[in-house]
Amino acid sequence: MWKWFHKLASPPHFYRISAILAPWLLVPGLILIGYGVYFGLFVVPMDYQQGDAFRIIYVHVPSAYLSMMAYMIMAISGGIGLIWRIKLSHAVAAAAAPLGAAFTFLALCTGSIWGRPMWGTWWEWGDPRMMSELILLFLYFGYMALRSAIDETTKADKASAVLALVGIVNVVIVHFSVEWWSSLHQGQTLMRKGGPGMDAEMLYPLLANILGFTLLFGSLLLRRIRTEVLFRERRTRWVREMILSPQGGA
Amino acid sequence: MDGFAMGGYGAYVWSCFALTFVIIVFSDWRARLRQKRVYRDIEVRLKALEDRE
């Protein structure tokens, strides 16, 4: 197990494996998203309270979930890089940040658009869920700004990993904010005691979209990690051999 | 047409799905662009080194 893990953490090995793995994540991801979007938009019945506006859930929930998952990947990878000094884990953390920021932005926008007809407002500054999600977006921006402000990669890796680890507190707040404080935002729909609070007909397309978005995210992340690995290893022998070989390696 | 209007919520629903599509495509495009740039930069540098040698 450890031998396999160490082999995977080797940049040239990861570079090769990820090229094979990425399409295997992308294709099933797109199929699941196709199913989830089609059923979410055209097949499932409208909600008895929210009408057709509830269909926004099929893009809002997967993006909100990914905004937190990307952060956890970023922070845990940064932490692993700090403790065990695995070079690849810092590359994973650096690659996860822009994607996490994109999905956080998407979660905020879709939430805001959904809030307008349901709550009568685009934004509520006192709402704990909205504010903690906004802070998450700023944490991503801060992380990326910190990385680009430090020229030396090793120093940038260490400083940004510490920032990412501290920011985990905010992810916990985002997740539990609707339980801890009174919020305009509805409570947990999927991860609550007694099972999901949705009919199976509405639930399955949502689960398909969550899984599909996760696979798509995995594929996008692998592409970014490959670029990050290539950039960091640009002076190594394996990169030189790969690029100058007749087949190339892109 | 009624299906697209979504009981008056069409603008909200469709804009969310469109935005999701745009952001995912943009993220993928940016990632591909950076990958190409990094690869090309390394290639140019290595070929220059090889020519010098």
Keywords:
heterodimer; A: 250 residues; mainly alpha; Four Helix Bundle (Hemerythrin (Met), subunit A); 9 helices; B: 53 residues; rod-shaped
Give a short overview.
The complex is a heterodimer of chains A (250) and B (53). Chain A is mostly helical and 250 residues long.
Low-confidence stretches of chain A: none
Q: Give the biggest beta sheet of chain A.
A: none
How many DSSP E strands of chain B?
Answer: 0
Main sheet makeup of chain B:
none
Oligomer: heterodimer
**What structural class should be given to the helix and strand makeup of chain A?**
mainly alpha
Residue stretches of chain B low in confidence (pLDDT < 50, at least 5 long) are none
Q: Cα distance, first to last residue of chain A?
A: 29 Å
Q: Class of chain A, according to the CATH hierarchy?
A: Mainly Alpha
Determine the N-to-C terminus distance of chain B: 68 Å
Shape of chain A: globular
Query: What pattern of helices and strands is seen along the backbone of chain A?
Result: HHHHHHHHH
What is the CATH topology classification name of chain A? Four Helix Bundle (Hemerythrin (Met), subunit A)
CATH architecture of chain A: Up-down Bundle
DSSP helix count of chain B? Answer: 2
Largest contact between chains: A-B, 38 and 33 residues
Share of helical residues of chain A: over 70%
* SSE string of chain B, helices as H and strands as E: HH
Mean of residue pLDDT of chain A? 92
Topology (elements, then pairings):
The complex is a heterodimer of chains A (250) and B (53).
Chain A: H1 2-8, H2 11-43, H3 57-84, H4 87-119, H5 128-149, H6 153-166, H7 168-180, H8 200-232, H9 237-244
Chain B: H1 2-5, H2 10-52
Description:
The complex is a heterodimer of chains A (250) and B (53). By secondary structure, chain A is mainly alpha-helical. Chain A has helices at 2-8, 11-43, 57-84, 87-119, 128-149, 153-166, 168-180, 200-232, 237-244. Chain A contains 9 helices and no strands. With 53 residues, chain B is mainly α. Chain B has a domain at 19-53. Chain B is 89% helix and 0% strand. Classes of the chains: A mainly alpha (250), B mainly alpha (53). The interface between A and B is large, with 38 and 33 residues.
